[in-house]
Fold this sequence. Notes:
The protein is an all-alpha fold and 123 residues long.
Amino acid sequence: MEDSNNPLKLFIELANFDQSLNQLRQQIKTLASEKEFLQTNYANLATKLESIKKKVHDAQKAVHGHELVMKDLDSQLQKQKQFLEQNINQKEYTVIKNSITNIKQNQYDYEPILIEDWNKLEL
């Protein structure tokens, strides 16, 4: 009798094939589960990335806005100093000097806000 036609041998080969098929099915399930897990993590990370990008953009806008305010205050200060250089009377001098003092105070008060936003942007 031939070995390849031996029913017992064929049955054993079928059982071995069935076992390897079950192992492959289990591997497919495991890989599918891992794929789903990774896809979920990817989606969560993509959402977090978008949130971080928005926060950075908002921080950049805030810093830019505060820098514009500081530039405007500096421009006002320069204009007031130019007025001081002109021939003016004592009353005008006092008004301009008070205006300069107020502008400097505004700059001083605004600096912590600008620095805080710069720090937020750096983080």
